[in-house]
Every structure is written in structure tokens, then in C-alpha cells.
Design brief:
The structure is a homodimer of 243-residue chains. In chain A, the strands form three sheets. In chain A, strands 5-4-1-6-9-10-11-12 form an eight-stranded mixed β-sheet, sandwiched between helices. In chain A, strands 2-3 form a two-stranded antiparallel ribbon. A two-stranded antiparallel ribbon of chain A has the order 7-8. Chain A has helices at 2-19, 52-63, 91-101, 146-151, 169-179, 225-242, and strands at 27-32, 36-38, 43-47, 67-72, 83-87, 107-110, 117-119, 135-142, 158-165, 184-189, 201-209, 215-224. The first copy, chain A, starts with a helix and ends with a helix. The radius of gyration of chain A is 20 Å and the shape is globular. The first copy, chain A, has six helices and twelve strands. Chain A is an alpha/beta fold and 243 residues long. The interface between A and B is medium-sized, with 34 and 34 residues.
């Protein structure tokens, strides 16, 4: 009988959690995947990113009842059910798509690995190698910082960023939280090849401004990206509603 | 009755062509896909290439009875049946894998879009942006020319290259045929977005040295990459056996 009560209790808990539409009424915009910065028609600069984490977040946000716009760089992933997807290539393309979706956006999650730099000049034709030169000098110019740009808009949505670091993860992530003027940052240590990038698993340490204005953090130990996405969406919606 | 004869004629033709093991006894090494040249643990330089053409060639060569080694850069494709696949990332990795497979290789098809340049120095940690600098200078150094290097080996296999061009396709391809010391070159005009790169269709103009020493060419109009691969393998085996 006790077993029955326990089982029934957990069944109810699961049912409630599955049905809790914590993001009902929100328009969530998520960027995912890498961007590609063309040097010429055949060459490009990019970042490692499978897009899996951003797609998992889009799926979790849709399940939480949100209207979801997923702005994706070049990835090989299926669009989650109920999600509106916009495919882009470069950082400038991505910024344009973000700008178009901002007017009624209430929550922005910048999960894309946006290339920091693009070629100053893009060749219209394929750059030919010259036999007499063994090196090539490339001048790169900074791409817009989409995350900081969203956060500084007059009616900015609740803005969440990601930080992929290989060292001093907590230090760099907190600096990024402040520098970019965002509300929350999800930090990954990508030096661990079992996690991040192309892996199906991930771990994260999240930093955010609590209602008191203090930076608070929570650790999420290694789990599937799907599970981590669900956990992050729960934390994000909690914090968003508190503020 | 005439219809029956015609049908029977074509049935025989198809049967013969499907069964003709024109590459029996050959060890074919094919490179496919792009290479990725790391700048640091998160950033890289690459080329557009889905790998579809190289994978289709590997499949066609295996069907023609060859032992096939497919050396593939980062792509999202399944390994064709009966093909031995080696996955690589950078041009230096690819050269190493090619070197390992050369000793008993009789036919080499360089279909990969190898990055011409790599970073002179690869950062062990993620390169941090500095707020005060809007540009970044990158010094690139030339990668080995795998195709030319294979062709100049003492017991070089019959070597076939690919040329993706956006202009003066025939001129550049013939210059490449001579400069690289290879036997045949397959030229694609990648300025047509309906073909090449990520498309399932392709067209090509092939240039090779005939037995007379003269450069001869053949055009393959737009068709599926699978069909083009079968047609190219037929032409390659024809020319290889003639010489």
C-alpha cells in the first residue's frame, strides 16, 4: 500500500512537470550552431559547433509552451517539432535574422558559436595560390557581438549567453556576464572532449544576477544535452519570472 | 516482337555494364570532403565540400571490383559498402593517411577540397578577443600539395585530380593538370549553385593525357553525382588500361 502511494506520488509529480507550461506566452529566440565567414567562394572560417545544445534548448522551450524561433547556422540536425527555424550562414546573416525576430521576443538565448572575426574583404572569385609565396596574410575584422547587441536594445528581452572556454572557465564566464550586459551565462569547459561540441553529453556551470543583484551560480554535472536543456529552461524560466 | 528485341538488347547491356569489374585487382585510394585547419581549440579554416562526389566515386570504384580506401575529412555521410574508410581532420592528417595507403595503391583520386593554407601557429588555448583591437592579422602557411606529392612519388599510381573553379574553368584545369604532373583532371564550375558543393547533381569537364601525349577532353553534362561517379570510374579505368 505504501508502495502504491509512493508510485502514485511520483506519477503525479512527473505528470505535473511534463504539463507545466512555464514558458506559455513567451516568444523565445534561440541561436544555434556555428557561423561560416567566407574568405572567397570556396574557403571559409568557422567554429566547432554541432548545434545540438541549441536545438535541444529549442525543443525544451517549445515543450514548455513557448513560441520558439530557432536561428541556425550550418548544421546537420532536424528541426524540433513546433519550432520555427531560420537558416543562416555568416554572423552578419545571423544578426539580421535576430533583428527581424526581436520586436516581440521576450527571452533570447544566444547559444550559437558565432565567429568573432570575418574577412575584411571577401573575394568574388576563388583566390589563386601563387607558387612564389609560402605564406598568406589575412586581415580579419571583428564581427558584431550579437549577444551584447541584443542586451543593449531599448526593450531588451531576458538575455542568456553561452561561454565555451578551455581554461579559467568560471572567471571568464563571469567577466563575460558583466561585459555583455546579459542576465545569465551558461559556461562550458570545452577542453573535455567527452563533452561539448559534437558530443551528446554536456555539463555546465551557470551564473546569473539574482534579484539582489548578486551573481549566483549553479552546477549541472554531466548529463545528456536533452536533459541539460530541460534543466536550463526550467532555471531560466524560474529566474525570468522572479525578476 | 521488335519491342521485345529492343528490351532484351538493353537488358543485356545493363547486365554487362553492372557486372563488368573494370577495376578488379586495383587498389584505389580516394580522398573526399574538406579538411579543417585549426586556429585554436574552437576556430578553424575550411573549404565548402559535402564529400558527396568522393563518396560516390568510392562506391562506384568498389562496384567496379576495386579494393577501395576512402580518406575522408569531416563530412556527414555513411561509408559505402565494401569501402575501407579513414577519417581525418587537417591537410597534414590527410597527407599522413595517404602516405600510409600509397605502397600498394594503383589508382589515386584526389577529390578532397584540401585547405591550401593552415595557421602558422595553432593556439593551445582559445584566442581571446581584445576590446581595443577591431582587426586581427592571421599569418597562414601553405599546406602540402597532396596531389602533386602523390604524382611525384617514384612508383606513383595513376593520379586523378579535381579542380573546383569559379571562372576560366577549362584554362585553370589544364594548367593544373600540367603543373601537378597528374594524368587526369576533373573540372567543376562551382559558380553554378545548382551543381557542386552540397548539391546532389554535378557536371564536369575532364582533361587527360591521351596515349599520344596530347591533352584530350570530355564533357559530362549535369547528372546525379552517383551517375557522374560511375561515368568517371569508367573513363578512368579505360584510360588507365590504355596506358
Amino acid at each position: 500500500e505504501i508502495l502504491q502511494q509512493v508510485t502514485s506520488f511520483f506519477d503525479k509529480t512527473v505528470a505535473i512537470s511534463a504539463e507545466s507550461k512555464t514558458l506559455q506566452g513567451e516568444h523565445v529566440v534561440i541561436t544555434a550552431g556555428p557561423t561560416r565567414e567566407p574568405l572567397d567562394p570556396v574557403r571559409y572560417l568557422s567554429n566547432h559547433s554541432s548545434g545540438k545544445m541549441g536545438f535541444a534548448l529549442a525543443e525544451a522551450a517549445a515543450k514548455a509552451g513557448a513560441q520558439v524561433t530557432l536561428i541556425a547556422g550550418p548544421v546537420h540536425l532536424a528541426t524540433p517539432a513546433g519550432v520555427h527555424r531560420v537558416d543562416v550562414e555568416s554572423a552578419l546573416d545571423m544578426q539580421q535574422a535576430v533583428a527581424a525576430s526581436l520586436p516581440d521576443c521576450t527571452l533570447f538565448i544566444g547559444c550559437a558559436a558565432v565567429a568573432d572575426f570575418r574577412a575584411e574583404q571577401v573575394g568574388a572569385e576563388k583566390i589563386k595560390k601563387t607558387a612564389d609565396s609560402d605564406t598568406m596574410a589575412l586581415t580579419l575584422t571583428k564581427n558584431p557581438d550579437i549577444l551584447a547587441w541584443v542586451a543593449e536594445q531599448p526593450k531588451a528581452p531576458f538575455t542568456v549567453g553561452f561561454a565555451a572556454e578551455t581554461q579559467k572557465v568560471a572567471e571568464y564566464a563571469q567577466a563575460k556576464l558583466k561585459r555583455k550586459g546579459i542576465r545569465m551565462i551558461v559556461a562550458n569547459d570545452v577542453s573535455n572532449s567527452a563533452l561539448g561540441f559534437n558530443s551528446d553529453d554536456n555539463a555546465a556551470e551557470v551564473f546569473w544576477y539574482a534579484a539582489t543583484g548578486e551573481v549566483t551560480s549553479r552546477c549541472f554535472q554531466q548529463r545528456s544535452k536533452t536533459q541539460l536543456a530541460t534543466d536550463l529552461i526550467e532555471l531560466i524560466s524560474e529566474q525570468k519570472h522572479e525578476q
